[in-house]
C-alpha cells in the first residue's frame, strides 16, 4: 500500500499524498520492465521506488523510478509519473532541479495524455528528445532489449 512521503524542493518541504492506484499501476509496470531489462553486470542499479536523493543545494527528491550508477550512487535516470495536482511540481520545479545537476536522463510520464516526455542533457541543459504516444516504443541505450509501447504502458488492467 503506497504511503505519503516528503520531498524538499529548494528548501521548502512538500508532503506528497499517497499515490492513487492508476499511478501505482504505471510505477509497477515500469519497475518490472526496467528490472527485467537490466543486463547482468550492468553499471546501473534500480533502487526501490521513491528512494530519496539529495540534490544540491537544498532539495531532496523521491522519483517514482530511478536508475543510479552502481559505483557511486549518482542518478542516471529519474522517472516522474505525474499525478493530478502535482503537475507543476513534477514538470517544472523538479525538472529544473534535475537539469541543474545535469541528470543524464529524465522521463515524465503523463497519464492524462498517455504520453512520455524524454529529456536528455545537452550543451545548455535539458533538451526534449521526443514525446512518445500510441505505438511508439520507450527505449534507453543503457537498457538493451528494453522496448515497451505507450499502448502497453497505459493499458487498462485486466478485470
Structure notes:
Helices cover 22% and strands 36% of the residues. The protein has 159 residues and is of the alpha+beta class. The protein has a single domain, classed as tt1808, chain A, CATH 3.90.1570. The strands form 4 sheets. The chain has a 6-stranded mixed β-sheet with strand order 3-6-7-8-9-10, sandwiched between helices.
**Mean pLDDT over all positions:** 91
The CATH topology is tt1808, chain A
Number of discrete helical segments: 3
Q: Separation of termini?
A: 20 Å
How would a textbook summarize the main sheet?
6 strands, mixed
Instruction: Output the CATH homologous superfamily.
Output: tt1808, chain A
Total count of strands: 12
Radius of gyration from the alpha-carbon trace, in angstroms: 15 Å
User: What is the CATH architecture annotation?
Assistant: Alpha-Beta Complex
Q: Report the structural category.
A: alpha+beta
Strand order of the largest sheet: 3-6-7-8-9-10
Relative helix content: 10-25%
Beta-strand percentage range: 35-45%
Number of structural domains: 1
**So what's the CATH class?**
Alpha Beta
**What string, H for helix and E for strand, traces the elements in order?**
EEHEEEEEHEEEEEH
Shape, please?
Answer: globular
The low-pLDDT segments are none
Q: Which features characterize this protein?
A:
6-stranded mixed sheet; alpha+beta; tt1808, chain A; 22% helix
What is shown here, in short?
The protein has 159 residues and is an alpha+beta fold.
Give me the secondary-structure topology.
Blueprint: E1 5-9, E2 12-16, H1 21-37, E3 44-45, E4 53-55, E5 59-61, E6 65-69, E7 75-82, H2 87-100, E8 105-110, E9 115-122, E10 125-133, E11 137-138, E12 148-149, H3 150-153
Parallel strand pairs: 7-8
Antiparallel strand pairs: 1-2, 3-6, 4-5, 6-7, 8-9, 9-10, 11-12
Amino acid at each position: 500500500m503506497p504511503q505519503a512521503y516528503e520531498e524538499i524542493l529548494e528548501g521548502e518541504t512538500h508532503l506528497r499524498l499517497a499515490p492513487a492506484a492508476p499511478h501505482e499501476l504505471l510505477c509497477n509496470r515500469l519497475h518490472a520492465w526496467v528490472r527485467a531489462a537490466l543486463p547482468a553486470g550492468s553499471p546501473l542499479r534500480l533502487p526501490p521506488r521513491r528512494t530519496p536523493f539529495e540534490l544540491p543545494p537544498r532539495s531532496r527528491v523521491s522519483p517514482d523510478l530511478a536508475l543510479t550508477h552502481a559505483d557511486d550512487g549518482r542518478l542516471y535516470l529519474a522517472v516522474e509519473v505525474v499525478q493530478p495536482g502535482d503537475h507543476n511540481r513534477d514538470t517544472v520545479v523538479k525538472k529544473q532541479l534535475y537539469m541543474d545537476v545535469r541528470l543524464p536522463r529524465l522521463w515524465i510520464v503523463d497519464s492524462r495524455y498517455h504520453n512520455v516526455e524524454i529529456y536528455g542533457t545537452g550543451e545548455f541543459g535539458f533538451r526534449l528528445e521526443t514525446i512518445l504516444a500510441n505505438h511508439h516504443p520507450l527505449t534507453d541505450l543503457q537498457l538493451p532489449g528494453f522496448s515497451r509501447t505507450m499502448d502497453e504502458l497505459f493499458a487498462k488492467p485486466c478485470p
